[in-house]
Amino acid sequence: MSAKKRYNLAVMGATGAVGNAFLRILEERKFPINKIRLLASERSKNKKLKFKGRLHTVEVLGHNSFKGIDLVLASAGASRSLEFLPSAVKTGAICIDNSSAFRMEKDVPLVVPEVNAQRVKEHRGIIANPNCSTIQMVVALWPIHKAAKIKRIVVTTFQSVSGAGQKKIFELEDQSRAYLSKKKFTPVELPYQIAFNLIPQIDIFLDNDYTKEEMKMAGETRKIMEDPSLKINATCVRVPVFYAHSESVNIETERHISAKEARSILSKAPGIVVADDPDAQVYPMPIHCEGKDEVFVGRIREDESIGNGISMWVVSDNIRKGAALNAIQIAELL
Ligand SMILES: NC(=O)c1ccc[n+]([C@@H]2O[C@H](COP(=O)([O-])OP(=O)(O)OC[C@H]3O[C@@H](n4cnc5c(N)ncnc54)[C@H](OP(=O)(O)O)[C@@H]3O)[C@@H](O)[C@H]2O)c1
To answer: Which residues have CB under 8 Å from 11's CB, separation 6+?
Structure first.
């Protein structure tokens, strides 16, 4: 792709939480666009969405949606990506896919620009955007991995409802209102009440009793950091927060690294803001990270239970860096 050209874009899933962020971030970063096509399901046919001050009509996604399109930003779920992206690639478009459909395919690069930007060049039409929880964790861990080689990661996530799509945002609003006014309600979008509760299940359970989300974090991290020997144990929890995922991350490294050195490495790394001052009670929180582009790291401390260990707290906006922004950064690399 050339710097002077203006591109024809299709946003697949334009009416969703990530689709909406695509439109806002394309505007903010002045992405060079000639035409934009907004695609969604039959439910959104003829709906109008605002982009760059103009209303654009949503079209129903189909195999013929990609004629003349240079770049597809896909966020309409894995089954739509599996079904429609091959058609887009056939017409010559490059696709950046937010779903899990192609992430672990051998010939599909799985890219986080701060970590493995060079892999973008290897694409054969599709580039995969990792899972939101994976992206913010690898941005925070990659600089430490380069300095001290991480051997093992133990992570617990605290994932906001927006990570599960627009309808879950409404569900948390509705349930909170109902709960506080002592009205009865039945969870619709999530398996249990999420208002004033935590759900230690994201995605389905697999044969090993981990959830698919937890195993995605492990597999994707190994692929992005290009280290099959990396040991990862994840527990993923849905929390009653609207935007931004938080993660408690504990690592064991080959070389000893002090908290001071980790802080210094992270404060110079791209895409990271270190917010870490225990005396002043400074640490990242979802309410401060919502709407921001960076990955915020705090509570950096040495793990006193092992020789070479560091614990930290990592927060980032799942819709931006965890999805739309990362995909647009990939497009900018192209
Ligand atoms: N939310 C996150 O933090 C996040 C992070 C990383 C990756 N992702 C991934 O991004 C994708 C979208 O997530 P989201 O949070 O934006 O979900 P969402 O808010 O539920 O939006 C889903 C989008 O897909 C469209 N869609 C659904 N079924 C369709 C169909 N049969 N044909 C055409 N379009 C269809 C919807 O259109 P209608 O409005 O017409 O139904 C909507 O635009 C998912 O694959 C998700 O795993 C999300």
So the answer is: 19, 22, 23, 36, 37, 38, 39, 72, 73, 75
Superfamily of domain 134-318: Dihydrodipicolinate Reductase; domain 2 (3.30.360.10)
Q: What is the CATH number of domain 7-130+324-333?
A: 3.40.50.720
pTM of the shown model? 0.96
Whole-number Å distance between alpha carbons of 38 and 215: 32
Distance between Cα 19 and ligand 1 center (Å) = 7
Pick the catalytic residue: 56, 95, 123, 132?
A: 132
* Ligand 1 near 77 CB (within 6 A): yes
Task: Give yes or no for residue 130 CB within 6 A of ligand 1.
Answer: no
Please calculate the CA angle 19-88-84 and round it to the nearest 5 degrees. Answer: 70
| Per-residue pLDDT tens digits of the chain, which is 334 residues long | 655 789 999 999 999 999 999 999 999 999 999 999 999 999 999 999 999 999 999 999 999 999 999 999 999 999 999 999 999 999 999 999 999 999 999 999 999 999 999 999 999 999 999 999 999 999 999 999 999 999 999 999 999 999 999 999 999 999 999 999 999 999 999 999 999 999 999 999 999 999 999 999 999 999 999 999 999 999 999 999 999 999 999 999 999 999 999 999 999 999 999 999 999 999 999 999 999 999 999 999 999 999 999 999 999 999 999 999 999 999 999 9
> From the CA of 126, how far away is ligand 1's center (Å)?
18
For ligand 1, atom 37, the nearest C-alpha belongs to 40
